[in-house]
From TrEMBL:
Region (Disordered): 53-72
Record-annotated Nephrocystin 3-like N-terminal domain positions: 97-255
SUPFAM superfamilies, alphabetized: P-loop containing nucleoside triphosphate hydrolases
PANTHER family in alphabetical order: AMELOGENIN, NACHT DOMAIN-CONTAINING PROTEIN
Name by which UniProt lists this protein: Nephrocystin 3-like N-terminal domain-containing protein
Organism whose genome encodes this protein: Candolleomyces aberdarensis
Keyword Nuclease (UniProt): no
Organism placement in taxonomy: Eukaryota, Fungi, Dikarya, Basidiomycota, Agaricomycotina
UniProt xrefs under Pfam families: NPHP3_N
Length: 575
């Protein structure tokens, strides 16, 4: 590449004219001028997603989360130490410069808040090249369709010298922005190559002094285009392998989904486990400072403190912290619940709501409001009911297998509920648990939970799921089927009739799953023969118990032996 000239002349001897705003770049001896209209044309051509960066309106374009001042300093410090380190330090320690930092953890543990802090810090110092916050269900922001173009639009703002190289890429590959070109080609032509082309001379010297540029990618697990996410990771790692000295770092934050973990658990990627940083002290600081702030603004709270002294009292605060555990999102949700303004339906004051949150049924309103966020989604009741009835918590992937649905369908329901349900960072290993045991009590008490009530008769659904699981995948889960069937038979006959009607109305989740009437027949005869394995004559068999189960047997036999063959859920070519 040619050396920069010591000086240049432009429009020598010209007079009586005016030059409006222009962007002037001197790159490798080539002099380039761009009028504002030219830049605007390129922006229009790129058509970036306007609400994908860290500067978006978070109220309208979630996630709406940020670190409370003075909290999460330890994990943020680890990220900034990596981002600010020279390319010489890390090769000595781990053998290879880590261009990529992957921060992972369970849903709601604060990854997006830390991503925002990292983006703001390096935007302030001029080192943030671009930021992109994925969000599930947010249209194209949850895909890779305009990912490269959105990064490029931010890159050209930070380093205008990249503009001519982007234009060259678009001219050389007219379909670069049409969606007919691979994501790798888009990233190469619009982001990596333009950045690489300008990293010489004075700009490279400044970068060496200030530190490398940073790209922040948050919520990669929320990208609904898994193949696109895989292609992005593979191409990124390959690019850094080919260009180990390029002054660029990429920060990625996500849950530990398999397609991400398989690619990022490798050399050249620094791993940060947010779960290893217990946030208890940070949560306490957040709550204490937040209560002080609201007390200074709320005259009702001020009057209460003048009459009764400190609020919240130390004992109540200690109980609240124990109640919350290590969940920042639960802490924030409970705090907002306590200090919310009174309404016609709820005229209580914050001082009255605080002790309610510590009682067994004090969070019923919060549970109802939170569960309503996912109530409209497919399989909501099956997913919540399964978690409720399994005191031994299950991984997300197991819940999906058991119900015969996709993993992403379980994740989609749970992510809206992370204020009250712990959503693990990985689908295969971590386990789904309730943030507090009172949620299970709420869901199994009909006069408290209303439409969210999980009836005991749901054990029929679970026994069907285990029966189908045995037929589809085998495995030693027979004891689970037996247990769920036994629990179902303990239900009152009226409940059984209602549940069978509901069960019959459900379509099989997979076309190759056993029809409901075939399952009930099989389970019913199982209950007759289980205590008489040596007797082939059905007339000699007796039901296992008397009384209520005789009534139950009549209802089951009538429903099971009179299926409706025209019903679409009975059509199953596999049986």
């Amino acid at each position: 590449m040619a050396d920069f000239p010591q000086y240049f002349e432009n429009l020598t001897g010209a007079h009586h004219f005016r030059i409006d705003q222009q962007i002037i770049n001197l790159i490798a001896g080539n002099y380039n001028q761009y009028t504002p209209n030219g830049v605007q044309d390129l922006v229009l051509l790129l058509n970036p997603i306007p609400d994908a960066s860290h500067t978006r309106n978070r109220k309208k374009s979630p996630p709406d989360s940020e670190c409370f001042p003075g909290t999460r300093e330890e994990p943020i410090g680890e990220v900034t130490a990596w981002a600010d380190s020279s390319m010489v330090v890390y090769p000595i320690a781990i053998g290879k410069a880590p261009h990529v930092y992957w921060l992972h953890g369970f849903a709601g543990c604060g990854k997006s808040s830390i991503s925002l802090e990292v983006a703001k810090k390096y935007a302030g110092s001029g080192r943030l090249l671009a930021s992109y916050f994925f969000f599930r269900g947010a249209g194209e922001r949850s895909t890779m369709n305009r990912f490269a173009a959105t990064l490029a639009s931010q890159l050209m703002t930070v380093i205008p010298a990249t503009i001519p190289f982007m234009e060259l890429s678009v001219c050389a590959e007219p379909g670069l922005l049409s969606g007919n070109v691979s994501l790798s080609a888009q990233l190469e032509g619009l982001v990596y190559k333009p950045f690489q082309a300008v990293m010489s001379g004075r700009l490279l010297e400044e970068t060496s002094t200030k530190g490398p540029f940073i790209i922040v990618i948050d919520g990669l697990d929320e990208c609904e285009d898994k193949r696109g996410a895989e292609e992005f990771i593979d191409h990124m790692l390959k690019f850094f392998d080919l260009h180990p000295n390029i002054p660029l770092r990429i920060f990625v934050a996500s849950r530990v989904e398999q397609h991400i973990r398989e690619r990022l658990e490798t050399d050249g990627v620094l791993l940060g486990d947010l779960n290893s940083h217990w946030p208890g002290k940070d949560i306490e600081k957040f709550l204490r400072e937040s209560f002080r702030t609201v007390a200074r603004r709320d005259r009702v709270i001020q009057a209460y403190i003048q009459a009764h002294g400190e609020w919240p009292k130390k004992m109540d605060m200690d109980m609240l912290l124990k109640h919350i555990g290590g969940s920042f999102v639960l802490a924030s949700t409970i705090f907002k619940f306590i200090i919310q303004s009174a309404t016609e339906e709820d005229v209580t004051t914050p001082m009255e709501r605080l002790p309610l949150t510590l009682e067994l049924n004090g969070l019923d309103t919060l549970y109802t409001q939170t569960l309503a966020r996912s109530q409209h989604l497919p399989h909501f009741h099956d997913i919540i009911s399964t978690i409720t009835f399994f005191t031994q918590s299950l991984p997300i992937a197991v819940i999906a297998d058991l119900l015969g649905i996709e993993v992403f369908e379980v994740v989609r329901v749970l992510l809206n509920l992370q204020a009250i349900i712990h959503v693990p960072g990985t689908d295969e290993k971590g386990r789904v648990t309730f943030c507090h045991t009172s949620l299970r009590d709420f869901l199994t008490t009909q006069n408290r939970s209303g439409s969210f009530f999980v009836p005991p008769s749901f054990h029929l659904r679970l026994s069907y799921c285990f029966f189908s699981y045995i037929l589809e995948k085998g495995g030693d889960v027979g004891q689970h089927f037996e247990r769920r069937w036994e629990l179902f038979t303990e239900v009152e006959a009226s409940d059984i009739t209602n549940e069978i009607e509901q069960f019959k109305a459900r379509h099989p989740l997979h076309t190759d799953r056993l029809p409901y009437h075939a399952f009930i027949c099989s389970a019913f005869f199982f209950s007759l023969f289980v205590d008489n394995p040596q007797t082939p004559d059905i007339l000699k068999c007796q039901p296992r118990s008397t009384g209520k189960e005789h009534e139950y047997a009549v209802h089951v036999a009538v429903r099971a032996l009179n299926p409706e063959p025209s019903s679409p859920h009975n059509a199953n070519p596999g049986f």
